[in-house]
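Quick entry between incubations.
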Amino acid sequence: MANSTADMRLSGGHPALDLVNTVDSRRGRWGPDLLRSFEDLLILTDRLGLVDRQATARLRRQAEHDPHEAAAALAAALELRESIYRLFLSENAGEAYPIADLRLVEDHARRGRARQVLTRNETGYIWMLPFDNLPQLAQLFAVYAGDLLTARHRRRAVRECTGDNCGWLFIDHSKSGRRRWCSDATCGSLARVKRFRSRMKVN
Ligand SMILES: [Zn+2]
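Done. Structure below.
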């Protein structure tokens, strides 16, 4: 079991889903929540390669300087995370996306998009957030979530892991398109052990 964003598995296959998966267990019981501070969020964006070292250090200094602002930015990210969770849980269930959650993602993403600047990287120019204030981390995830929503017709489905006490979301890149677990090595192997044990009991 993961204890923090520093050691959690990043198995969502997309940044927006890895944000959702910062609740270690969503089935059966809820929690623990691995996003307990703005620093936890910074560790996640760093591990996902979304924010460069310089910007991470800058945001860290800002958060230390203004804990109130950092707490508000974390609260916004948590609210956004739950909206993204409900949106893709609906997709997994084959239901329509909930409107209130769509609007929340849209609101954060719009503010993020308005701040993006064209920046040069190794391959050319890309749209980047300047990361000059703390709410931009939530806005960044909202932009990613919006991209995932609008790419529905050209990507694989988002699925919910069926492992006991898991419920993490992931993009199903498997050949069959019927992957059931966020990770074969953890939830998948646990399920196989359980099935084996229940067979042994019957015989
Ligand atoms: Zn799982």
